[in-house]
Amino acid sequence: MDDGRPWFAQKRYGYGAGLPIAWQGWAVLGAWLLALLTGIGLAAWDEDVGLIAGLALIVPATAALIYASAIKTRGGWRWRWGGDE
Known about the structure:
Radius of gyration: 15 Å
């Protein structure tokens, strides 16, 4: 299932991943955005329970996004100064 191709481009400056370059990267980013909006909606719906439920959804989704982008970024995550592609 894993063909070894990157899902995210590397950043030109700084550390981390850039925009998705494959449909899998866009799917991961879209799923994270859906989880974020759902968590915000839950927090707005009920201030007490909704905030906890929203955070219980957003925190693992953000961790999954960071993990997926870290392992599937072209060239890996490292500091870049803009000169290397």
